[in-house]
Design goal:
The protein is of the alpha/beta class and 231 residues long. It has 2 domains: 65 residues, no CATH class; 148 residues, Metalloproteases ("zincins"), catalytic domain (Zincin-like, 2-Layer Sandwich). Helices cover 38% and strands 26% of the residues. A 4-stranded mixed sheet has the order 1-2-4-3. Strands 5-6-8-7 form a 4-stranded mixed sheet, with helices on one face. Strands 9-11-10 form a 3-stranded mixed sheet, with helices on one face. Strand 5 and strand 6 form a beta hairpin. The protein starts with a strand and ends with a helix. 20% of the residues are buried.
Amino acid sequence: MTDYIVFGSKRIDFELTFANRKSLGITVTPDLDVRVKAPDGTPIIDIKERLRKRAPWIIRQQSFFLSFHPKNPPRKFVSGETHLFLGRPYRLKIIDSEIEEVKISGKFIEVFTFEKSRAEALLCEWYLQNAKKKFHSIAAPLIKRFKKYEVEPSSIILRNMPTRWGSCTPRGKIILNPELIKAPKGCIEYVIVHELCHLVHPNHTQKFVDLQTREFRDWEKWKGRLERLLA
């Protein structure tokens, strides 16, 4: 069943299930959903009271996960439009050409194409190819550093994710959103370190935060930069 509580001016919706367990558990998912598991027979009034007490933590968790939600506004892929690459803004220039290619020239990303309607596909493929090269080179020294914790990702793959910058599977596969190629190197390092920390501590416990701070002291700075730049 679903229900909600009101905390200040904020409404917190939650999904409630009952189970044969002794204590009430509250989980916030990366998609910002709040899931509650309660012992069989627990009065709803008691569940809501517990949620109100945990509301500040729930809101903090949702804000934390929200930083991983890509928020780029839609683009039209026309000349003069601004596009980012590794944190720097470039003006898009569509150029008529029989040979199709994309390259950076000064302050411009030039898209050569025989048909303007193909500009989006060509630019997206260019971003993807650059992401494949850059992400692996950025990740390599970070992965090496984490070997002291006896962890190493089984692989790093790229996948478009509408609500996340990165994720880590139970089998140790790190998934990165290719949209990150639009952010500065520090933002990319932050996301990679965050996922590497999950290989050591799967959940966002204090030990996880302590490890992230130890291995990437400026993570809050780059987290904020990612939120502002790609908002």
